[in-house]
Amino acid sequence: MTTVLIVDDQPMQRFGFRMLLESQDDMTVVGEAGNGAEAVRQAAELHPDVVLMDIRMPGLDGIEATRRIVASGARTRVLIVTTFDLDEYAYKGLRAGASGFLIKDAMPEELLSGIRAVAAGDAVVAPSLTRRLLDTYVEHLPETTAAGTGEPEPDERLARLTEREREILTVIGQGWTNTEIASRFHLAESTVKTHVSRILAKTGARDRVQAVILAYDTRLVNPS
Fold first, then answer.
1. CA proximity to 155, closest of 167, 166, 139
2. Cα(169)–Cα(75) distance, integer angstroms
3. I need a surface site. Which of 31, 61, 176, 179 has the fewest CB within 10 A?
């Protein structure tokens, strides 16, 4: 059973989400919150598998609430729900540690499958869409060049990777699927999945979305 905390400042939106989720045999809503501060408090008390997080709320917004929930070290994962798929707030939500995002007019099946994916530890954002978002908001990426060299500042997270893992992280950042990676490197998909798992473990990335952000941050991938 996947437990979900619904966070949205609009009561009717929360009601709609609850009706949908509670129609599923494998999901249960453990709480609702109308602002970010309440979301952080309830996440700490209820330990939901997934927080369905709105962004624009009075007081503490969904981005800061996401950051605090993720920073707590809890197993709870956050799924951002926003109005636009290419929106600066969604980008900031991913940077804050969300495991993905959906737009509010997504089909019910998309929302349900997204929640299940996040609960299982996967990212719900297609790699190509993640890259499109990062390309759009590349000006927010931190400067990582070493002073006076123009070269990227060495990142200790990359130093932990083998050469093959670094190659795979690069193409993950370019939006490649596991199937495409397997074909390119002549590997079984199960082997690719093992490499991806090791990359996440070694770099501390929570999921594939965070791995894409890492590839951009460290300039393994240059914006198109």
1. 166
2. 24
3. 179
Tell me the residue type at 181: I
Residues 196 and 172 sit within 8 Å (Cβ to Cβ) = yes
Question: What is the three-class DSSP state of 4?
Answer: strand
Q: Which of 141, 139, 126, 149 is nearest to 218 (CA)?
A: 141
- Distance separating alpha carbons of residues 43 and 148, to the nearest angstrom: 45
28: which strand partners?
Answer: 3
Question: pLDDT for 31-81, tens place per residue?
Answer: 999 999 999 999 999 999 999 999 889 899 999 999 999 999 888 999 998
Using CA atoms, how far apart are residues 79 and 8, in angstroms rounded to an integer? 12
In the DSSP assignment, the letter for residue 142 is: P
Dihedral (C-alpha) 206, 207, 209, 211: value to the nearest 10 degrees?
80
Nearest to 131 by CA among 211, 39, 44: 211
Distance, CA of 194 to CA of 5 (rounded, Å) = 31
Q: What number is the average pLDDT over the span 176-190?
A: 90
Q: Which residues contact 184 (CB under 8 A, 6 or more apart)?
A: 171, 176
Per-residue pLDDT tens digits for 154-177: 688 899 999 999 999 999 888 788
In this prediction the pTM is 0.73
- Residues 190-204 as b/e (b if ≥16 CB within 10 A, e otherwise) read eebeebbebbbebbe
Residue 157: DSSP 8-state:
H
**CA–CA distance, 3 with 9 (Å, rounded to integer):** 20
